[in-house]
Amino acid sequence: MTQGQDNTREVLEHLESLHPAPAATATPREVVLVTGISGSGKSVALHALEDAGFFCVDNLPPELLREFIRLEHERFTHRVAVAVDVRSARSLPQIVPLIVALRGEGMTVRTLFLDASNDALLRRFSETRRPHPLGAVHAGSDATRALVEAIELERRLMADLREVSTVIDTSELRPALLRNWVRQLVGARESALTLVFESFAYKQGVPLDADYVFDMRALPNPHYVRELRPLTGRDAPVAAFLEQQPEVVEMLAQIHDFLARWLAAFEEGHRSYLTVALGCTGGQHRSVYAVESLARRFEGQRATLVRHRELDARE
Asked: For residue 75, what are the contacts with CB-CB under 8 A and spacing of at least 6?
């Protein structure tokens, strides 16, 4: 055991001696596990959860996670958020089985995985001049190659955890927008699959967090109608224009039917969120309208969240 783990265990034991265990409570227990690629914004997400009322801890060794959750739930709070990353590389294989075990005990466990493109990560490491946890420093061409190799190694090490998590692509997100998205995710109704509909611009790249991607670029484009060009897919004139196009009606009906057919299978796989990304050229008209339309169709049947990557970034 490392010196850091020894110190953490001493703190836990000290807390236990100060606070005798109270009687059992029926209050639901909730844990949010924040993880992801270094430089993707985990600290921002953790601060958002802290503002939302979670007791937050960064970089707790996975070996101590169960004991920490037990102490905090019994003595202080029933909403705990813990950040775990590649700094605990040797212990990462323990996390997925632990998540399964905790859920089997009736605990609500949400896992958020923050990711970003290599270009975005390289830019952030360059701006902060901080070394990568796996040892690479961004300075010069050779070091840049070493940093890319470190990021790719980190992706491989974190792959299993990413597979069971809700992924947030932070490549183009400002910190304020990331905080908002995190609060939305943890505030969504639990016990049912939450549908996340996200619009995006293809010219800015496909979101890394998408489970399904649908291309709206084959549909008539309001951009070429002078009166509609400055508007967005949330505006009534744009919606009226698109609703008059048979191709739009048909495509959205097919996407709705496809999702409705397979949602039960995702729920059986214990998925908490399903992110459906819809893209067009600029992320302003067609994809925005499609997201709003599909979200309305599923409201009342499923918990839904709406994101507009390009539009939200402007606000």
From this structure: 15, 19, 21, 22
**pLDDT tens-digit map of 160-211:** 899 888 899 999 888 988 998 898 888 765 546 889 999 999 999 999 989 9
CATH code: domain 3-187 is 3.40.50.300
**Domains of the chain by residue range:** 3-187, 196-314
Query: How confident is the model over 266-308, as pLDDT tens digits?
Result: 877 667 789 999 999 999 999 999 999 999 999 888 889 999 9
**Which strands, in side-by-side order, build the sheet including 194-201?**
212-215, 273-280, 194-201, 303-308
- DSSP code per residue over 295-307: HHHHBTTBEEEEE
User: Around Cβ 112, how many Cβ atoms within 10 Å?
Assistant: 25
Per-residue b or e along 189-207, where b marks 16 or more CB atoms closer than 10 Å to that residue's CB: eeeebbbbbbbbbbeebeb
